[in-house]
Specification:
Layout: H1 2-23, E1 33-41, E2 55-61, E3 64-71, E4 76-83, E5 88-94, E6 98-103, H2 105-111, E7 118-121, E8 126-129, E9 132-141, E10 148-153, E11 173-181, E12 184-195, E13 210-211, H3 214-222
Parallel strand pairs: 6-13
Antiparallel strand pairs: 1-2, 1-12, 2-3, 3-4, 4-5, 5-6, 7-9, 8-9, 9-10, 10-11, 11-12
Length: 225
């Protein structure tokens, strides 16, 4: 009888563990890897929608991250590097040449913190995105603009991941959100997260790129979309 009871308990525990793993309860908390996002244009001109990026790849390591997008059916490549150690945000553009700009904190605040002043509410809703437990945050704007909802996770271990973007008040890796750059607003939704060793050179400026003031780079790119 005891042997039967033990066997039954073992089967039940095994079944629970299998189900739990399949549901992602034991999703690994990673510090280095790659997040793939689906990208969709928001209010893009119909004639230019085909030129907008349809995906984004984000590589992260040691608190740094690099987001890569391709637009114009591969004719244009954009990389954005966030360096919390140097407090720099770097934009690299390959289109009719190779150019980069470096923004320090004051310029980051005036360019990347483009949303109206807001407070963040956390309703407590939860869902899985790309296998990760996520919760929602609602941005309530002080100028009475319509509220905005984003989804983020704390199970990807990047410290203060949003310090250089418009969601700097949210302490978690964004998994479903809108972001605007170069006059184009995109809706990003994470589709996969994978652990990977990232080469440190990903976060460096290639020698063949030429420096431009960020304002010039913004003007050059804003007319494209």
């Amino acid at each position: 009888m005891k042997r039967f009871a033990c066997s039954t308990l073992l089967i039940c525990v095994s079944a629970f563990l299998f189900h739990s793993c399949s549901e992602g309860i034991f999703t690994k908390k990673i510090k280095e890897g790659i997040i793939e996002f689906k990208a969709e244009p928001v209010n893009a001109k119909e004639s230019m929608a085909m030129w907008a990026p349809d995906n984004m790849e984000v590589k992260f390591k040691d608190g740094l991250w690099c987001a890569n997008l391709e637009a114009g059916m591969g004719a244009m490549r954009m990389d954005f590097i966030s360096d919390p150690n140097k407090k720099q945000f770097i934009s690299l553009v390959s289109f009719l040449g190779k150019f980069y700009s470096v923004m320090e904190m004051k310029e980051i605040e005036s360019n990347n913190y483009y949303l109206p002043e807001y407070e963040v509410a956390y309703p407590g809703d939860k869902k899985k995105i790309a296998g990760y437990d996520c919760e929602n945050a609602v941005l309530k704007f002080k100028d009475n603009s319509p509220a905005m909802e984003v989804w983020f996770t704390k199970d990807i271990q990047v410290n203060n991941p949003n310090w250089s973007n418009a969601y700097y008040k949210i302490d978690g890796v964004l998994m479903d959100y809108h972001l605007r750059k170069f006059g184009l607003e995109l809706h990003f939704t994470a589709t996969s997260v994978s652990e990977a060793q990232i080469d440190p050179s990903v976060f460096e400026i290639p020698s063949e790129f030429k420096s431009k003031p960020n304002a010039e780079l913004e003007n050059m790119m804003s007319g494209f979309f």
